[in-house]
Design brief:
The complex is a heterodimer of chains A (333) and B (337). Chain A is mostly helical. Chain A contains 14 helices and two strands; from the N terminus they run αααααααααααααββα. Chain A has a two-stranded antiparallel sheet. Chain A is globular and about 55 Å long. The two termini of chain A are 33 Å apart. Chain B is mainly alpha-helical. Among the domains of chain B are: 72 residues; 74 residues. In chain B, α12 crosses α13. Classes of the chains: A mainly alpha (333), B mainly alpha (337). Chains A and B meet through α2, α4 and α10 of A and α1, α3, α5, α7 and α9 of B. The complex binds zinc ion (ZN). The site of zinc ion has 5 residues of chain A, from α11. Chain B: Keywords: Magnesium, Prenyltransferase, Repeat, Transferase. Chain B: InterPro entries: Prenyl_trans_a.
């Protein structure tokens, strides 16, 4: 008996090998070749764009393709001297998301001392709320993404003690649903991206025992579709970025082997653009730098031999975290 | 990643700020990309014009009607620019603008950018300032009628319901959505949210089991409703196997040759739980064999892609069962000696 599922077809013509050199070229030229409009339109997330590119190249051991000096200069200019937070781009207001991206880049470049680290800690602490949650910026949007950003930033700069961790854990756990998953806020629908944030949060704070791993991992396994790709919620199409979020969460919970790695690999490789390089969200679409990092990251989790090992919690090369002596909790089954 | 709004979205009779006499007193500020820009770019003219003037009013902290209009142009070019939204709120506050008008404006922006974080956040702030949620259910309903799984719209709706206690008619609305698309996971989640608010009484649990069962009869292979059913039994505090009618229903489907992986997964859960509670050794053996058979079916035929998961389920179940047997034997021996 066949059931109808929302999925994609992968034709035999789609790439089956990693187009390594194409991706290096794609990322190194990102921004140079981009049409102006696209570049203007993404100004508001530039800092994250740089993090995606830097991390992807580092996983391919091609970090020297980018100009370290100008990137570090750029980050320095984006830190707000008053609040301590970092903005997406000069002239923008600081935000938790870009502060994390900036800190991640500086860790990869091994030069955290280039910014005011105490200021970063002050900024993150200032955004924690009495219920333990975090604002994304001074305007007060609450989301479990920001809880993840907060503990990730503070762990990378070794200042986790500036916030109330037990309260933060309490808030994240209040976002757990009956299906074992997590949403953006209490009662919000379970969503693979937010599950990644919450599982990552718990792995950073050493609280993975609070998860109902069996139930959650089962829900995550259910995200795999016949094409091999993973979706983010029931009835949605598969997507490379969700493949990363689901796979990273399963890895942290020690259950990566519950899904079919071979089929997932086929799906991810089929999302490569054979002309320009880069990965798209799903087979046949245009590539972008965001899906390029998460495609490479997922392949690294699956043990691809041309890529450095990625850390599933931080989405950074494992050697960077080793150097910083950061251990994130991982369950072994 | 970015919205594909075109550069030409400003009206055709649009005049660049540089040529406007009422802006002659302002000196535009260009984007400073530094000596060694990370990436070399040339901005489109219109974009550059608007944002150069935006940077200028930001720098001079000008809060005026014309500045408010300028933010509108800037947001039309890029609704995801959170800094412009923030400055727009500063202006609205400083000028004491009519916020009902602002809500109407946001309606338009949301209908063009329904998946934009910033505009939904702006909406929430304005509704909070007004302390008036009277239009929020209508707005989210209209957005959800275009995309019934829009995460932003559901978040906003839950926020409005929770903050202003608007639960009363929500179950009817959710029922309508589920009737339109029984696979709408967001609607099932919303149903759970409302039920949780009113509390899981035995009557509610009974009613909801029936509700779910009726929807499963319609479409068997529907992950959302099976998850909902599990949640109702679990959050109602009852163990799954205490509701014999649910087990009977699942067995009925199975006997009618339904082989949906969700059904079988549910049956495996029920049988495992029942087996581990069973006192009678023979019945326990039988249930144990049933679990193993069902898992085997998943591994070999019905859910091959997750075969390793099912192997794990059956292995850890066997372990539990053996441990239980050992304990029981131990107790029996103690009793006779
Ligand atoms: Zn994606």
């Amino acid at each position: 008996m066949a059931f109808i599922v929302n999925d994609v077809d992968i034709s035999a013509a789609e790439p089956k090998e990693l187009l390594f050199d194409k991706h290096v070229e794609y990322i190194a030229n990102h921004g140079n070749d981009q049409n102006d409009f696209e570049y203007c339109m993404t100004e508001f997330l530039r800092m994250s764009g740089i993090y995606w590119g830097v991390t992807a190249l580092d996983l391919m051991q091609q970090l020297e393709k980018l100009d370290r000096k100008s990137i570090v200069e750029f980050i320095k200019k984006c830190q707000c001297p008053t609040s301590g937070g970092v903005a997406a781009c000069e002239g923008h207001d600081p935000h938790m998301l870009y502060t994390l991206s900036a800190v991640q880049i500086l860790c990869i470049y091994d030069c955290l001392d280039q910014i005011d680290v105490a200021g970063v800690a002050r900024y993150v602490a200032s955004l924690q709320q009495p219920d333990g949650s975090f604002f994304g910026d001074k305007w007060g949007e609450v989301d479990t993404r920001f809880s993840f950003c907060a503990v990730a930033i503070l762990t990378l700069i070794n200042k986790l003690d500036v916030i109330n961790v037990p309260k933060a854990v309490e808030f994240v756990m209040s976002c757990c649903n009956a299906d074992g998953g997590f949403g953006s806020k209490p009662n919000a629908e379970s969503h693979a991206g937010l599950i990644y944030c919450c599982v990552g949060f718990l792995s950073i704070t050493n609280q993975l025992h609070r998860l109902d791993c069996e139930k959650l991992a089962w829900w995550l396994c259910e995200r795999q579709l016949p094409s091999g790709g993973l979706n983010g919620r029931p009835e949605k199409l598969p997507d490379v970025c969700y493949s990363w979020w689901v796979l990273a969460s399963l890895t942290i919970m020690g259950r990566l082997h519950w899904i079919s790695s071979d089929k997932l690999k086929v799906f991810i490789l089929s999302c490569q653009d054979t002309d320009t390089g880069g990965f798209s969200d799903r087979t046949g679409n245009l590539p972008d730098i965001f899906h390029t990092l998460f495609g490479l990251g997922a392949l690294s989790l699956l043990g691809h031999d041309k890529l450095l090992k990625v850390n599933p919690t931080f989405c950074m090369p494992q050697y960077v975290l080793d150097k910083l002596k950061i251990n994130t909790q991982i369950i072994s089954v | 990643m970015s919205d594909n709004s075109s550069d030409e979205e400003l009206a055709p009779d649009w005049i660049p700020y540089r040529q406007r006499s009422d802006w002659a007193d302002v000196t535009p500020i260009e984007q400073d990309d530094g000596e060694n820009p990370v990436v070399v770019i040339s901005y489109s003219e219109k974009f550059k014009d608007v944002y150069d003037y935006f940077r200028a009013i930001l720098a001079s902290s000008e809060k005026s009607t014309r500045a408010l209009e300028l933010t509108r142009d800037a947001l039309r070019l890029n609704a995801a620019n959170y800094t412009v939204w923030q400055y727009r709120r500063d202006i609205l506050k400083a000028l004491g603008c009519n916020l009902q008008q602002e809500l109407q404006y946001i309606d338009d922006v949301i209908s063009d950018n329904p998946k934009n974080y910033q505009v939904w956040h702006h909406r929430r702030v304005i509704v909070e300032w007004l302390n008036d949620p009277s239009d929020e259910l209508r707005l989210t309903e209209s957005v959800l009628s275009m995309d019934s799984k829009n995460y932003h719209a559901w978040q906003h709706r839950q926020w409005a319901i929770k903050t202003f206690n608007l639960y009363d008619n929500e179950l009817e609305y959710v029922d309508r959505l589920i009737s339109e698309d029984v696979r709408n996971n967001s609607a099932w989640n919303q149903r759970f949210f409302v039920l949780k608010h009113f509390g899981f009484t035995p009557e509610v649990i009974q009613r909801e089991i029936q509700y779910a069962v009726n929807r499963i009869r319609l479409i068997k292979n529907n992950e959302s409703v099976w998850n909902f059913l599990g949640g109702i039994l679990h959050d109602g505090g009852a163990s799954i196997s205490q509701h014999e009618e649910v087990l009977a229903f699942c067995e009925e489907l199975y006997n009618n040759n339904v082989r949906s992986p969700y059904l079988i997964a549910f049956l495996i859960d029920l049988c495992q739980e029942k087996c581990l509670r069973e006192e009678n050794a023979e019945s326990r053996e039988a249930l144990g064999r049933r679990v193993a058979e069902l898992c085997d079916g998943m591994i070999r035929e019905h859910d091959v892609i997750r075969k390793k998961y099912w192997q794990y389920v059956v292995d850890s179940f066997q372990l539990k069962l053996n441990r239980l047997k050992a304990n029981n034997d131990g107790e029996r021996n103690d009793g006779t000696s």
